[in-house]
Design a protein that fits this description.
mainly alpha, 54% helix, elongated
Length: 72
Amino acid sequence: MGLIKLAAAGAVGYALYKYVNKEKLEEVFAGGDRANVRGSGPDHMTSPPKDWSKTDEAIDESFPASDPPSTY
């Protein structure tokens, strides 16, 4: 019976946490931090490089992923 009470208390705590942080999450996903992200490729750069290979394109498209592209 103690495990059920603990699970219920955890669920209530999680619901309260989500309710309190709801406005902060909506602000972030409305474009707050992500509004300054550019599209990939040299067409979207302010000063594109002279040489642009398929490897450069794959690296740029995968950023900020932690794994390197498979074509590298």
